[in-house]
Design goal:
Blueprint: H1 2-23, H2 31-54, H3 64-84, H4 95-106, H5 114-120, H6 128-148, H7 155-170, H8 173-187, H9 193-203, H10 206-217, H11 230-254, H12 259-269, H13 275-284, H14 288-312
Protein name: AEC family transporter
Organism: Corynebacterium mastitidis
Keywords: Cell membrane, Membrane, Transmembrane, Transmembrane helix, Transport
């Protein structure tokens, strides 16, 4: 239990620091605050992802727990896309907004809370790098492609727009860094310490910057304060907090996982929405309210869910 509590304490403390700094004007509102997100997106987060993925164990990439995590992510995101079509105010949301809602409902916070939870609750951090790889190398390019596409052109112009957005997504710093880390991991190449050490220091700034920007943003808007976004926020929160762990439980049973592996798959699915989802939304200024509110609510709501899973599993 101490791992779950420790992970949440870390997140809440940094968010609170960002909120306080925004309250007294140290972190300005508006575009000035978004500079933290941009620095994280283009420099700190790529460094963090490279160091984490590059130092992971190759065999962990093929764990059945990771297969359950991927399937649960895809199914949860698909459920959001299906149900969101029936929600009121559909015409007020673009494809990019809907994509951000799907990401908010399914992307797990695998790093700044996933790592301590995996280490202290599951007894190993081996499950986290493969989830990072899946989200950053395979799923994130698709999301960034949608965010980058304007959707305003038709015919060949639209096709060129989508191709350009996909190319931009695949060449984004976080995807390139994750892919490079994966290559190092699979080939067992030794990265020299003079190269790795600066990247580790730079990567250490990623999560604090994202969380502080997130905390500072709470000074300007109340959670669930946007009527047109409220149904999607509630939907994404319910899917992430309750449905995704249930899907992981069902998929684990279907794939024959038992004991520690089934417990790990369910706990990982119960992790809150990743702060990176808010970082993408803030960087591209699409679906920001849904991403921000879902991140905040699931960060609080996932703690009792994880504690209940641990209790029901006899842990």
């Amino acid at each position: 239990m101490i791992g779950v509590i420790t992970g949440f304490t870390i997140i809440m403390a940094v968010i609170a620091a960002g909120y306080a700094l925004g309250r007294i004007g140290i972190i300005p509102a508006g575009d000035a605050r978004l500079m933290l997100n941009r620095v994280a997106f283009y420099a700190a987060t790529p460094a963090l992802l490279f160091t984490v993925v590059a130092t992971s164990q190759p065999q962990a990439l093929f764990s059945p727990v990771i297969a359950v995590s991927l399937l649960a992510t895809l199914l949860t995101g698909a459920l959001f896309l299906i149900v969101a079509r029936a929600l009121p105010g559909r015409g007020h949301h673009s494809a990019a907004d809907t994509a951000m809602g799907g990401a908010a409902a399914s992307y797990v916070n695998s790093n700044n809370i996933g790592l301590p939870v995996s280490m202290y609750v599951l007894g190993s951090a081996a499950y986290i790098p493969p989830i990072l790889v899946l989200q950053m190398v395979f799923l994130t390019p698709l999301l960034l492609a949608v965010l980058g596409a304007t959707g305003e052109q038709g015919g060949r112009g639209a096709a060129r727009s989508v191709r350009g957005a996909v190319r931009t997504a695949l060449l984004s710093p976080i995807v390139l860094a994750s892919a490079a880390g994966l290559a190092v991991c699979l080939t067992s190449v030794s990265v020299p310490e003079p190269v790795m050490a600066p990247l580790e220091i730079l990567g250490g700034a990623s999560i604090p910057m994202i969380l502080m920007s997130f905390g500072a943003s709470l000074n300007t808007t109340t959670v669930l304060d946007s009527p047109k976004d409220r149904p999607r926020i509630i939907l994404a929160t319910g899917l992430k907090t309750l449905v995704m762990p249930l899907l992981a439980w069902g998929l684990s049973a279907a794939l024959g996982l038992t004991g520690p592996e089934r417990y790990a798959a369910i706990i990982l699915a119960a992790l809150p929405t990743a702060q990176n989802v808010y970082n993408y939304a803030a960087t591209f200024q699409k679906g920001t309210i849904v991403a921000r509110d879902t991140v905040l609510i699931t960060t609080f709501a996932s703690l009792p869910v994880m504690l209940a899973i641990a209790a029901l599993s006899g842990r």
